Amino acid sequence: MIRVAILISGSGSNMEALVRSMTGDHPARPVLVLSNVPAAGGLAKAEALDVPVHTVDHRKYPRDRRTFEVELRRNVENMQSDLICLAGFMRILTADFIAGYEGRILNIHPSLLPKYRGLDTHARALAAGDAEHGCTVHEVTADLDDGPILGQARLPIEPGDTPESLAARLLPLEHRLYPAVLRRVADGNREPLYL
Ligand code: GRF
Question: Which residues lie closer than 8 Å to 167 by C-beta, 6 or more apart?
Fold first, then answer.
């Protein structure tokens, strides 16, 4: 069985989709939901789903990313996690941390990478006049929102779309894409999946 730790910072809707997908003949199971934000709504969702939760509050480690990451690593290792899924986790991980999990950290990003790394992706797609938008699941490497693409889902941008309307239409696609990619990766398939 592949043991999956899911890192969150917020509402945890992608985390919930991932957890709910890991049942039956799925080769992976969730073993930890970890948040860097004590008030993250996803923590209660994870508890309701019977997944062990933990918080490592980054504000307790001001200007000390290393110690924050030592704590992250300790928790991930405690649960003997094989794979880490970042799901709305809003801290940048250092190259050192990532090197300890080469090819074993996945992330979902709300854009069609390589477009719009970083924040405000919906607004940036609109400002650029793009005809379509989407989300990407990728392997995490030391470069921000980079790394091999494992899957993408696209949606057309409609006249009158706002960052909020785009985000709302994209989220259900994220909830389909991320579990589908996790399943493939757990099965040893890293060919990109295009929805
Ligand atoms: C998602 O849009 C994800 O792509 C982005 O942050 C959002 C997280 O939402 N990185 P949730 O916490 O999974 O509900």
Answer: 110, 122
Residue 58 annotated as catalytic: no
**What are the tens digits of pLDDT across the range 132-150?**
999 999 999 998 888 999 9
Protein fold of 1-102: Rossmann fold (3.40.50)
CATH no. of 108-195: 3.40.50.170
- What count of other Cβ atoms lies within 10 Å of the Cβ of residue 1? 11
Using a cut of 0.85, tell me whether the model's pTM lies above it.
yes
Compute the distance from residue 136 Cα to the ligand 1 centre, in Å. 12
Q: Tens digit of pLDDT for each residue in 103-133? A: 999 999 999 999 999 999 999 999 999 999 9
> Does the structure show a pLDDT above 90 at 63?
no
How far apart, in Å, are the Cα atoms of 183 and each of 2, 28, 40, 104, 114? Answer: 11, 8, 26, 14, 23
| Count of all residues that appear for the chain in the document | 195
Among protein residues, the one with the nearest Cα to ligand 1's atom 1 is: 88
